[in-house]
Amino acid sequence: MGLRVDFTNVGSGFEPIPDGEYEATVYSCEVKTGQTSGQPYLNWQFKLQGGEFDGRRVFYTTSLQPQSLWNLKKLLVALGYNAEDLKGSFDLEPVMAEVPGMECVLVIGHEEYNGETRDRVLDVKAAGSSSPGDVALFR
Question: Is 34 within the bounds of a domain?
Answer without folding.
Answer: yes
